[in-house]
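INFO batch 0412 | record 1 of 1 | parsing
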Amino acid sequence: MLLKRRITLSINVLILLIGSIIMLAPLAWSLSTSLKEKKNVFDLPPKWIPDPMTFANYKGVWSEAPILHGFLNSALIVVFVLTIGLFISTMAAYAFAKVDFPFKETIFMCLLGTMMIPYSVTMIPQFIGFSELDWVDTLLPLIIPGLFGNIVVVFFLRQFMQGSIPTELIEAAKLDGSGFFRTFAQIALPIAKPAIAAQAALGFMGIWNDFLGPLIYLHTPEKQTIQVMIASLQSMYISNSDYPLIMSASVIAMVPVILVFFFCQKYFVESLAISGLKG
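INFO prediction complete | emitting tokens
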């Protein structure tokens, strides 16, 4: 029996190791390419460790493109949408999970129904509307809609709160004279912190990596986000095979996402564990 467990464990570890190599190989190759000279990119056999190794591409990418503007623009969108939009989504999720009001389930189902509408259906009407407001080529079309929350986040947090926040605790707070906002801030938010942090990390990655929205609305190079700026670099330098420069920009853009996931991964596990226990 012990031998069987060891064999099963070894097989599982081997499968995870193979999967990790497959997932990390493109990242490692991107990092390796960013440290190579242009003439050494297609050397045969391929060299994972660059020889010679140079950091000139990381220095050059800052002068070749307004990448700092791209960072600041993406960061500005992330800060506004995550701080305000996530707060609104959390408050809506608490209301749908623990507050009784007329037509609650009907309203929630209607909101869920909007998830079925493809973005391609609303893309042109939204563009026309933002054009009439003279918001095209500004960050407003990428910020303002996100301030009103996200139904996917509302749905996830609602399910979490329904299973993790005891109704008796809410009723006890009401008997003590606690209103909606005080109950939400002192009871719901602390309990739902793992789920909120997990959604914040996912939201950060989604906003930071968004390409289609900025591509539609932003035209001036200094107003573009980091992902659109990298695509512009590809169109500029792909013809002369300057892949190290492009990979340098890509690695720079990946650093914030990697850091956010690294610091928030415990919240992913904690939120899933709590949901699983309560479910």
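INFO post-check: The CA atoms of residues 201 and 262 lie 10 Å apart.
INFO record closed
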